[in-house]
Amino acid sequence: MLSTPPAAALDLQEVESRIYGFKSFTKKMDDSVLQLNHTAMEFARKQVTGFRKEYQKVGQSLRGLSQAFELDQQAFSVGLNQAIAFTGDAYDAIGELFAEQPRQDLDPVMELLALYQGHLANFPDIIHVQKGALTKVKESRRHVEEGKMEAQKAEGIQARCNTVSFTTLAEIHHFHQVHVRDFKSQMQHFLQQQIIFFQKVTQKLEEALHKYDSV
């Protein structure tokens, strides 16, 4: 773990390799965050509008069937008619559960994704500064070999690059620690809320099912 700048110069090749790897990581993560955000937004929209509407259509159709059955005017069919009507109401309620659910699970996920889009947008500039520092070190070494620069000046450039590299690697290390913590917590919350949601749906269906026991 990085905590204080090392006394010796960092290995430039290793630093360059780690920076390149992190650049690839941030590009892939940014693309994935955008894709997941779009998918979550579309899924939430479908739950609020499409899913609710479809479940309500099923509920309305079931109540229509119940009303049709009532026309037989048979005493022994009353229980069935009531059970079917109750099932229709259950589907209405499930539709409302779908419409309300994104606030509990998808919205918090999208908020976290938006936060990380902001974080990721900062890294190209940080990486650019780091690359610039590495380039200056390479140039200074070449100039020393060609006799165009004193070794002491090149060492100063190396020392500044060392500081920049340490800071950059520390930021990368911190980012990885934080993103693991944040996404672990958010995914746990998401799945917990999904479980609660489907338990509510199951409860509605079980209540409807029990209405047929006495028919």
TrEMBL record:
<dbReference type="InterPro" id="IPR019497">
    <property type="entry name" value="Sorting_nexin_WASP-bd-dom"/>
</dbReference>
<dbReference type="GO" id="GO:0005886">
    <property type="term" value="C:plasma membrane"/>
</dbReference>
<dbReference type="GO" id="GO:0016197">
    <property type="term" value="P:endosomal transport"/>
</dbReference>
<protein>
    <submittedName>
        <fullName>Sorting nexin-18</fullName>
    </submittedName>
</protein>
<dbReference type="GO" id="GO:0035091">
    <property type="term" value="F:phosphatidylinositol binding"/>
</dbReference>
<feature type="domain" description="Sorting nexin protein WASP-binding">
    <location>
        <begin position="6"/>
        <end position="213"/>
    </location>
</feature>
<dbReference type="GO" id="GO:0006897">
    <property type="term" value="P:endocytosis"/>
</dbReference>
<dbReference type="Pfam" id="PF10456">
    <property type="entry name" value="BAR_3_WASP_bdg"/>
</dbReference>
<dbReference type="GO" id="GO:0031410">
    <property type="term" value="C:cytoplasmic vesicle"/>
</dbReference>
<dbReference type="InterPro" id="IPR027267">
    <property type="entry name" value="AH/BAR_dom_sf"/>
</dbReference>
<dbReference type="GO" id="GO:0036089">
    <property type="term" value="P:cleavage furrow formation"/>
</dbReference>
<dbReference type="GO" id="GO:0097320">
    <property type="term" value="P:plasma membrane tubulation"/>
</dbReference>
